Amino acid sequence: MIDAAESDQKLKNLFHRYYMEEDLDPPDLLPSREIGYIPFSGSMSRHRRIQSARDLKYFVSNAVPRHLYYSTSYYRKPDEKKMQDKEWLGAELIFDLDADHIKGADTMSYAQILAEVKKHTIRLIDDFLMRDLGIQESEMKLFFSGGRGYHVHVVSDKVYDLNSDSRREITDFIRGENLTAQGMISSINRTQLLGGWPKRMDSFISDFFRALPRERTEAMEQLKRVFPNSNTARAFFDHIMKPSRIGSKTVNRIDILSKNGIEKYRIFGEDERGIAMLGWLIEQARENMSAEIDDPVTTDVHRLIRFPGSLHGKTGLKVLGLKISDLPSFDPLISAIPETFRNGTAKIYSEKEGTLDINGQTIHIAEGEQEVPLYAAIFLSASRRAYLI
Hints:
Mean pLDDT: 95
Shape: globular
Oligomer: single chain
Structural class: alpha+beta
Low-confidence stretches: none
CATH topology of the largest domain: DNA primase, PRIM domain
CATH class of the largest domain: Alpha Beta
CATH superfamily of the largest domain: DNA primase, PRIM domain
Strand order of the largest sheet: 2-1-3-11
């Protein structure tokens, strides 16, 4: 009979080996950070202060954390037990991108999840933080979480003193919250499409109508997604195929809707069908163009986040910092394998057959006992897919 406790002890021994052999890279102002960890047995322990890299090495080698965290906030007294006694000095602006918020993640493999979350991370950095909010690449730090996603840290005097409400405004903007059809019609008709969501939305809408077939039967296949009543869908199509004045010209409404610019919102505002169509397009744009972030992580100014260089207790992979420019080609299932675990093999017991994509190869997992590369054995044990024996 397989002993789960014995398997867990073997995994802890391997984590201990890692923390003895490899040094963690402490974050800036380490003595001002609160340190917390989850051991291999027991609950979260926090409100700790570590003064130096040497003290950190001693701590992790003895505590052997299954999960290790540090505060995104800076405190005068980080080891005080009550938050009000810690004397908050400021906090980094943190974005956590994880599979929990990705549509359809429950049907994806681990490798597919990582690829999808990477898309959202690139979108967050390029479209929202850098383009819309003007944050420089030098003001950001990027980490693979060791699990199913990425952490983006904004480290700048611009953000340290932001309170929770201000941070929530940022998350609402990134997620495209509070965008409504009536709101866009009333505001955009009076303004220019300068940037941000208005410009992003305008391009999305124009692309949709440029691709919409000009023949009614073919167009109905798409419009039925918007209007559950076929008669309404046909009536909307007939309406947008009719001419309308734009300046001194007369053109079909669908041609106005197909071009970038504010004139299309006059067409949407002509009746309830147009408003319903715009509302549907807003939801589609949000789904396809927002970045799925974990709001509570960003808004909580006392948040703990995974410690750089530590091991993730559910994968055995490393919390790894990387350059933003390297993200498109980054493969965590290769790069986040600790050097300590790259060589050697280990025996496992699996209760069911399966596969594991890791280190550029697909490993077949047979039911019962078998020998696999050490890093694969650690991943399978940490994720509860097999036992170390």
